[in-house]
């Protein structure tokens, strides 16, 4: 099991307060890493990091601000001395405050340019900047693992039918922003793996499927029937894959897209 040990390694997780982000942090901590949980809410992320154990830390960062990331980098290096693992998890997934307008606003013909640009800024530029700031440290120390969190929708188009209600009416559409940005993340992984391979920095993508999170039962059933395992994911279902990519267990793996989706994209 030493292959999967992260003892003595320092791991940064962006979007650490999200449903899967918390599970990423917990898994890394259990594997022995010093975890830096990073998110926008300073008090909440510090409290969450404290719940993991005293050796872990929480930092407020804005993934779209290079200055914010550079300040975080310096704090991490001062405390831990190295940066060994980066999990680019922060992302925007469309939510519509007014359900009555969700269908209208999410339709491609009406989808706001501002929303599309915001997703590009966080989901793509944020991954670029985090990789640039933290990955440069890894390249200098000649070792490191960058894990970019993408999605099944980075590989296939959204099935809009699963967003219909019991009456067969479309409640909303999965917008273009999420598939476009997650597809970009997958190819950015390939670029960076090729660029930094000779520096000992491995870069891989983890593409998860949909996670059950208090959705209505009709949606859960619609989604589940399209997977080979017949269910949506639990938030903890990605922990093993994450530790594999972060650890020496995947020492000869780079530029790859590890798909963990219950078989959604297999058929």
Automatic annotation (TrEMBL):
This is NAD(P)-dependent dehydrogenase, short-chain alcohol dehydrogenase family. One of its GO terms (molecular function) is oxidoreductase activity, acting on the CH-OH group of donors, NAD or NADP as acceptor. It comes from the Bacteria. PROSITE patterns: ADH_SHORT. Keywords: Oxidoreductase. It holds the Pfam family adh_short_C2. Belongs to the short-chain dehydrogenases/reductases (SDR) family. InterPro entries: NAD(P)-bd_dom_sf (IPR036291), Sc_DH/Rdtase_CS (IPR020904), SDR_fam (IPR002347).
